[in-house]
Backbone:
């Protein structure tokens, strides 16, 4: 084979067998990836996944990759991709390789990778080896099979109609130009097992779980699991850190990698982030996207601190960490497999700790900018803004808490209070007490 796709296949083959799953404690030169689908804003759960991947790469002197999985053309937009990239940049999770940074394993958008023909070439390799086969079942036939299986109370998976078809019949249909899908031939009795860095040993009875699954749709479009497996191998990703909802995808991806002869990455599947009612965190719980928290006045270092604690601890009582401290302390073997509950009060407390730990000039700049944007101060760097920042420093947990406090102070009826009879009595009493103190001092009492 010739061309870019063939070169990529040869590059993958050279990496075969060169990598084994690492021990829990460390993985020198780790290559991790974050692979968002640009169909909306970056969810805090996704941000935690990106953070853990970034930390693991940093701690092990490796690389953090960003791959955009934008094959859902109906929902994926470049605007959403830009938003995700901006959110990651605000958090400080800078990628070493990706759509904007470039790198030796690009392109880093799946839509662009498809244009090189890599997936189709590897599907042909699986066909040639007998690990895959062509299926000419029509959508109507598949719907009927699914309905019959459900009516019988069986798992509605493909029944293998074309698995052992007569080669002559396959060729006849190919010559007639009939559409087909490419399906993976699941080995009889196959059990797939992985040592998950978070969950321990996980195994699947493949035939009972997935059956012969599709690799290429009838139009030649590769399916998600085929793309992910190939891309992880092509980009030499050594550790895949992702949400537990992807655990069921792992069995297909492992089968594909094994059939192609590529090394398996290490897997770490993170538990869900739940709302305080212990249901999956969603918009009904309030802010859930990184951009929403940024707009509400949270600090990026506080967000990183809190997100890291959603499922990880270093076995100490420490709760406030700098980014450097997180990079030094983080380890996958301290990630818990229990779901984490998003506690807004704790996030606010952590943000307040980070805010008060800032140098006065830095905190004043943040508060001043907020006061100016809120129309409370004329300029972010005015003497008034500096004084206001000092006044509210011990009272605020978020930068955005400053404007209502300053407005309340400015709205206080000081002139009326000073002109009241009560204020006059208080002034007289203060003068009397002050005079007594001065007299006592003069007399040496």
Residues:
């Amino acid at each position: 084979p010739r061309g870019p796709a063939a070169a990529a296949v040869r590059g993958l083959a050279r990496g075969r067998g060169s990598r084994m799953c690492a021990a829990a404690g460390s993985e020198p030169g780790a290559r991790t990836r974050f692979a968002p689908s640009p169909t909306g804003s970056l969810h805090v759960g996704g941000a935690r996944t990106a953070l853990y991947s970034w930390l693991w790469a940093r701690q092990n002197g490796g690389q953090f990759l960003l791959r955009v999985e934008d094959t859902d053309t109906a929902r994926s937009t470049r605007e959403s991709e830009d938003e995700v990239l901006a959110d990651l940049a605000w958090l400080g999770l800078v990628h070493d390789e990706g759509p904007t940074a470039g790198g030796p394993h690009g392109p880093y958008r799946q839509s662009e990778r498809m244009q090189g023909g890599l997936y189709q070439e590897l599907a042909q390799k699986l066909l040639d080896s007998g690990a895959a086969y062509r299926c000419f079942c029509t959508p109507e036939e598949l719907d009927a099979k699914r309905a019959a299986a459900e009516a019988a109370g069986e798992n509605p998976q493909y029944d293998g109609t074309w698995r052992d078809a007569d080669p002559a019949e396959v060729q006849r249909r190919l010559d007639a130009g009939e559409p087909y899908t490419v399906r993976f031939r699941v080995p009889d009795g196959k059990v797939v097992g992985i040592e998950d860095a978070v969950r321990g040993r996980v195994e699947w009875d493949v035939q009972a779980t997935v059956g012969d699954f599709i690799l290429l749709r009838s139009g030649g479009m590769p399916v998600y699991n085929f793309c992910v497996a190939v891309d992880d191998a092509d980009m030499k990703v050594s550790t895949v850190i992702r949400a537990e909802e992807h655990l069921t995808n792992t069995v297909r991806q492992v089968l594909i990698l094994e059939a192609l002869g590529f090394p398996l990455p290490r897997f770490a599947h993170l538990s869900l982030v739940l709302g305080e009612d212990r249901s999956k965190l969603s918009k009904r719980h309030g802010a859930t996207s990184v951009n929403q928290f940024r707009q509400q006045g949270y600090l990026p270092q506080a967000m990183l601190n809190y997100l890291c604690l959603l499922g990880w601890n270093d076995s100490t009582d420490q709760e406030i960490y700098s980014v450097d401290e997180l990079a030094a302390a983080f380890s996958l073997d301290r990630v818990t497999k229990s779901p984490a509950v998003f506690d807004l009060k704790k996030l606010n407390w952590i943000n307040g700790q980070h805010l008060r730990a800032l140098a006065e000039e830095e905190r004043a700049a943040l508060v001043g900018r907020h006061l100016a944007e809120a129309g409370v101060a004329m300029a972010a760097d005015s003497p008034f803004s500096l004084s206001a920042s000092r006044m509210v420093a011990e009272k605020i947990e978020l930068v955005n808490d400053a404007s209502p406090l300053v407005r309340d102070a400015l709205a206080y009826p000081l002139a009326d209070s000073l002109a009241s009879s009560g204020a006059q009595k208080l002034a007289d009493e203060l003068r009397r007490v002050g005079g007594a103190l001065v007299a006592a001092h003069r007399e040496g009492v």
Observations:
- Residues 1-24 have pLDDT under 50 and may be disordered.
- The chain has 19 helices and eleven strands.
- The radius of gyration is 30 Å.
